[in-house]
Design a protein that fits this description.
Layout lengths: L6 E3 L94 E3 L40 H22 L11 H12 L7 H12 L4 H10 L19 H34 L5 H11 L23 E2 L2 E2 L47 H9 L9 H23 L6 H10 L6 H15 L20 H4 L7 H32 L1 H4 L7 H15 L11 E2 L2 E2 H10 L3 H10 L1 H7 L3 H10 L7 H17 L7 H11 L15 H11 L16 H15 L8 H13 L3 H11 L1 H13 L16 E3 L5 E3 L1 H8 L8 H9 L10 H21 L2 H5 E3 L5 E3 L1 H4 L12 H15 L3 H10 L3 H16 L21 E2 L7 E2 L1 H5 L7 E2 L3 E2 L8 H13 L2 H4 L4 H21 L3 H11 L10 H10 L5 H4 L2 H21 L6 H24 L6 H12 L1
Parallel strand pairs: 1-2
Antiparallel strand pairs: 3-4, 5-6, 7-8, 9-10, 11-12, 13-14
Helix pairs in contact: 7-24, 8-9, 9-10, 9-25, 10-12, 10-23, 12-14, 12-21, 14-15, 15-16, 15-20, 16-18, 19-20, 23-24, 24-25, 25-26, 27-28, 28-31, 31-32, 32-33, 33-35, 33-37, 37-38, 37-41, 38-41, 39-42, 41-42, 41-43, 42-43
């Protein structure tokens, strides 16, 4: 075959025989080189789609339109309904319009829309073409001279193809006929002749390209076609075994494949069971959280006890259906043996994690509370926090302060928490730091915290939780509630007065020329200088305002600023010194201010207050505009509490802090029945006023950025809105909010919610409408950033949850429970068992863990079983995850000494099971124990913790940088087992709690390991003596069948750990016998010949006894053991 189409004949007599440009365009049917369908659509009569292997093996129906014809190399191979008309078709009759192998191609005008490809036709048509068949109109085809030859070639190839088909389905054929490869060579031989650059090839390429077919791509597809595809469907026949060796080899192969298949199936089952028992245990709780997140209310549990959709799943049922797994007996005290509290992995009685999942670095701004997320969206998104490096540095400084706080609490010492936390914020350069520092100072003024007092024995020393009893009183009109409200009003106002005077001194010092400070350096001189500074800047009062003067002093402005600074006595002295002038200006003011100063509650007598209010209202109503000094009206409003309906002074330029101070000095905490309704203005009214002003000034869209956020926080602290302040600050600066909340809670000025509530909100409300903070979850979630790297610091934070154990009712007890739950989750998550739960020295002395050192802080008694429960759960987790040293340590700390022996026995068995000469098994050693972040004052390079401070005698426990002398730091299972057994042997307290069977198994494995070491050292006689001393193998039976049978019977009573290594023990015995016998046989001239022969015979008898022993325990030993015994006997 010289080319794809050998000849292209154009009928010149037919004016439409020349293809037009548009006639050869790609039809709607499209062309595909590899396709499996017939593109000849009935509604498109002149279009046909053909593919390279269009209808291979397909049973197609003939189309009625001869112009819509597809031809192909394998056009209808295997189609039973139509005869094959392709080049390799096996048809018995030729079609009328068929063409030979080298037939002509005639392009007719009626076939201008015909779509052809390189080799292929779609569908089995009545009109079939050869390999190079004619695509012309059958009525206009001309006879060719080589048609008889083409018929012979067609018959030849048809016969070859028919024989190939028969051979393909004849398995008994020897394959002597031509295959498809031979056919391909025959095709090339018959098709040779046309060259690549001949006009016929060019014309054929032109026709194919005009039809949208790439001949080169078609040839590549043909070359890549696998001629063996027709044989893929044949089923594999089993080979006939002609000899025993082939049969055994095939049997071994089938057995191996069956074992592999069973292993895969078993692995799949085990994995499914693991998923069902471990992974799915959190699914119900996770589903609840998802539903709560989207606001979908789950169905409640029915009253009759039937399980609801979201009820907890019993242990006998998996989350994804009924569990079919039958669990084995767990270790005593393990997590599957009925430990209270539910599952270990956060399936707690709380139904939610207390400490949250570990978050990435810089995730402190990511909230886990639903209401905080809404607040972030409400306020236009969270404020971008500082860099991760700065945040970590700030957190580390706070960690040091919290650890120092807990240390002082353990020592019963005073700790100025507000001043210490303020120093951390002061070291930062954040924009909100100024207002947060002011908030710490305001709170310190409220609680009267002092850095000078160091002992609680001092009278003025403020104690831990000192204000909790009064602040947590829900009764609004109780004496305790009025007392704490009065304290907040007075001391917040006092802080603002001190802060104002400090600002006055700063401004005067910065502007000495404008202030012109002179005279006696007292309060009055500083305030006069401040007024002169404000006058020079023209911001003391609005323009055209009449300010009264006394000499060179602005008298009313000076009195006002004395009151604003809190120096009421100085104001009285100033008025008294200038009594003559004041009598001329205002003859009653001296009596007003003196009575104001004389009364402790800053309340005028009723007749004076009524007279002052009357004068204030009269001047305000009658006086012309700008004729009254605004500072005079401000003094009247402050002293006489005039016109409480208007609590602002719009004429004066007031800052938010000035406005806040005015509200505080106007408010009074009194019994409402003793006061007129118009004169009632309490702290609750101030809080309402501040909230209304805050919504307008600091809500969404407020200008001022971070400065305004922190300022609003400061104002809330000043008015006693502590919970609202923490909630607001947590939205923008969670680190500062958490530590400020800790400071508030330390003094009892924070109302906390019940941690067992199902609400996922940061701030909720009591039944009386009072706000409360989810303190336990807030602290727990805060530790998720650093607890993986610093678990000890996380314990210090979580222990602060128990500050609220004095809360009345069940809420206080629940606070202790959630603290314990958080510690439990911390232990199981971080796996810092030695650090958190304790350690043991090589001599068995116990080292307390961080939690145990803080038992007093977390509300644990010495008799409490919390530590044991957590330790057993952690031990179970460590054992399941393969952390042998951790499991041994934890079970020892929990007093489960028998479980310790079981674990080290299993580890010994695994170590002995390693074949001789292939190395030794290593355990994952215990994490090095470090003791906190502080440094030893005698050696700053050595860190130590609270344990070292409280018990100096334990300093010898550590070496270097807090490294542990723990027995669990070993990585060799044999050394670990030897150390633990030696420890338990020396104390009856340990030994009496260990089962005899487990102890015996451990001792046997230790001796077996000793024998293995002798075998590795090629000390055959010593190894044989040790093996005989084990009394497990019949090495002393001397052919006694009953004794051998007794040893075989004893095999069933051995523990699993020992029985697993019996094959290794047999192999070591064979090696010892063989090498000893070879040594004796090599020493023929060593002396006593009779003894030598007797020993050789005894060694041979030992091998025979081992053969008998293994034959009685069929399927208990691997094949190489039997082979070794057979080889030993043959030698």
């Amino acid at each position: 075959m010289s080319s794809l189409f050998s000849t292209l004949n154009n009928n010149n007599n037919n004016p439409q025989s020349t293809p037009a440009a548009g006639a050869t365009s790609t039809p709607a049917g499209g062309i595909s080189l590899i396709s499996g369908g017939n593109f000849s659509q009935p509604q498109q009569q002149n279009n046909a789609g053909s593919t390279l292997f269009g209808s291979l093996g397909a049973t197609s129906q003939a189309q009625q339109n001869p112009a819509s014809t597809g031809t192909g190399l394998f056009g209808s191979l295997g189609a039973p309904s139509q005869p094959a008309g392709s080049g390799f078709g096996a048809t018995s009759q030729f079609q009328q319009n068929g063409r030979g192998l080298n037939g002509a191609l005639t392009n007719n005008a009626n076939q201008a829309g015909l779509n052809t490809s390189g080799l292929g036709g779609l569908g089995a048509q009545p009109l079939r073409q050869g390999l190079n068949g004619d695509l012309g109109n059958p009525q206009q085809q001309q006879p060719l001279s080589d048609q008889p030859q083409n018929g012979q070639n067609r018959a030849y190839f048809d016969s070859i193809l028919e024989k190939g088909r028969k051979r393909a389905h004849d398995d008994n054929s020897l394959g002597l006929q031509l295959g498809l490869g031979d056919l391909r060579r025959q095709m090339k031989r018959f098709g040779g002749g046309a060259q690549e650059g001949s006009p016929d090839v060019v014309a054929a390429h032109y026709l194919l390209a005009a039809s949208g077919v790439d001949p080169g791509a078609a040839i590549k597809d043909l070359n890549s076609f696998n001629p063996q595809v027709s044989r893929l469907d044949q089923t594999h026949q089993e080979t006939v075994d002609t000899d025993v060796e082939t049969y055994l080899a095939n049997l071994q192969t089938q057995t191996t494949l069956s074992m592999i298949s069973d292993g895969f199936a078993r692995s799949v089952r085990d994995f499914d069971n693991f998923l069902e028992d471990h992974v799915s245990m959190e699914w119900d709780a996770q589903r609840k959280r998802i539903y709560q997140h989207f606001g979908i209310k789950p169905k409640e549990e029915p009253v009759n006890g039937a399980r609801a959709n979201f009820a907890s799943t019993p242990e006998s049922h998996g989350t994804f259906g009924r569990s079919r797994r039958t669990k084995g007996a767990p270790l005593v005290g393990s997590r599957t043996s009925g430990v209270p509290g539910g599952s270990v992995l956060r399936r707690t009685n709380m139904q939610k994690s207390v400490i949250g999942s570990i978050g990435p670095i810089g995730s402190t701004n990511q909230t886990l509370f639903a209401d905080v997320e809404k607040n972030i969206e409400k306020n236009g998104g969270a404020v971008a926090g500082p860099s991760d490096a700065f945040q970590r540095e700030k957190q580390n400084r706070f960690i040091e302060k919290v650890q120092s706080l807990n240390l002082a609490r353990l020592k019963k010492q005073k700790y100025p928490i507000l001043h210490e936390f303020k120093s951390v914020v002061r070291q930062g350069s954040e924009q909100h730091a100024t207002d947060v520092i002011s908030a710490y100072e305001a709170l310190a003024e409220i609680v009267q915290e002092s850095t000078e007092l160091e002992s609680f024995s001092d009278r003025n020393s403020v104690k831990e939780r000192q204000f909790a009893d009064a602040y947590l009183d829900d009764a609004p009109n109780s004496a305790k509630s009025r007392q704490i409200s009065k304290l907040i009003l007075e001391r917040s106002a006092r802080y603002l007065e001190k802060a104002f005077y400090k600002e006055v001194e700063t401004l005067v010092a910065k502007n000495p020329q404008e202030a012109k400070l002179g005279g006696i350096p007292n309060v009055i001189s500083h305030l006069k200088a401040y007024i002169r500074l404000r006058i020079s800047r023209k911001d003391l009062a609005p323009d055209n305002t009449d300010l009264q003067m006394l000499g060179t002093d602005y008298v009313w402005a000076l009195v006002y600023y004395l009151l604003r600074s809190g120096y009421v006595q100085e104001a009285v002295d100033y008025v008294t010194e200038n009594s003559v002038a004041f009598r001329a200006i205002d003859r009653n003011f001296s009596a007003y201010i003196n009575d104001y100063n004389a009364r402790g509650d800053r309340r005028l007598r009723r007749e004076l207050q009524d007279r002052m209010s009357s004068e204030y209202n009269q001047r305000l109503r009658i006086a012309p505009e700008n004729s009254i000094d605004p500072f005079r009206m401000a003094c009247y409003k402050i002293i006489g509490r005039c016109d409480l309906g208007t609590r602002t002074m719009p004429v004066l330029s007031m800052t938010p802090l000035d406005f806040m101070w005015l509200q505080l000095v106007l408010a009074r905490e009194i019994i409402r029945v003793d006061e007129m309704a118009t004169d009632s203005y309490t702290l609750s009214n101030v809080q309402t006023t501040v909230k209304e002003a805050g919504e307008k000034s600091f809500g969404k869209g407020a200008q001022g950025g971070l400065r305004f956020h922190s300022l609003w926080f400061l104002l809330q602290i000043l008015t006693g809105l502590f919970e609202d302040a923490i909630n607001y600050l947590y939205t923008f600066h969670s680190v500062d909010a958490v530590h400020f909340a800790i400071a508030l809670d330390y003094y009892g000025l924070l109302r906390v919610s019940d941690p067992t509530a199902l609400d996922n909100d940061f701030m909720t409300y009591t039944t009386r409408g009072l706000p409360q903070i989810s303190f336990g979850l807030m602290v727990g979630y805060y530790t998720r950033v650093f607890r993986a790297a610093n678990a000890g610091a996380a314990v210090d934070y979580l222990s602060l949850i128990c500050l609220n154990k004095d809360v009345p009712g069940n809420s206080g007890r629940n606070q202790v429970k959630v603290c314990h739950e958080a510690l439990r989750e911390l232990v199981l998550e971080t796996k810092e068992f030695a650090l958190l739960l304790g350690d043991i020295r090589g001599d068995g002395q116990r080292i307390n863990g961080v939690i145990e050192d803080r038992m007093e802080l977390v509300g644990l008694a010495d008799t409490d079983d919390f530590m044991r429960t957590v330790t057993i759960q952690a031990a179970s987790i460590a054992d399941d995850s393969g952390r042998t040293t951790d499991a041994v340590l934890l079970y020892h700390l929990a007093g489960e000494f028998d479980n310790v022996i079981v674990i080290i026995t299993r580890a010994l068995s695994e170590a002995i099971a390693i074949p001789v000469g292939q190395g030794h098994m290593k355990l994952q050693p215990l994490k090095p124990r470090t003791n906190g972040l502080e440094s030893d004052p005698r050696d700053p390079t050595r860190p130590y913790g609270i344990t070292d401070i409280l018990r100096p005698s334990t300093r010898d426990i550590t070496l270097g940088v807090g490294a542990s002398l723990s027995l669990m730091s070993l990585d060799d299972p044999v050394q670990l087992a030897a150390g633990m057994t030696l420890l338990y042997q020396g104390s009856n307290m340990y030994f009496q709690k260990i089962k005899d069977a487990n102890w015996a198994a451990c001792q046997l494995l230790l001796k077996m390991h000793e024998a293995k070491v002798r075998v590795e050292d090629q000390r055959w006689a010593d190894a044989m003596d040790i093996i005989i001393a084990l009394d497990i193998l019949p090495l002393t039976a001397k052919g006694n069948a009953s004794e051998i049978r007794s040893y075989a019977t004893k095999f069933a009573s051995l523990s699993q750990a020992v029985a697993t290594n019996i094959p290794n023990l047999v192999m070591w015995s064979i090696l010892c016998c063989n090498h000893q016998r070879a040594s004796l046989m090599a020493s023929k001239y060593g002396g006593n010949e009779g003894t030598r022969l007797m020993l050789i015979q005894e060694l041979r008898q030992k091998n025979m006894d081992l053969t008998t022993y293994t034959s009685q325990l069929r399927y208990r030993f691997p094949a190489h053991i039997h082979e070794a015994l057979a080889r030993a006997q043959s030698e």
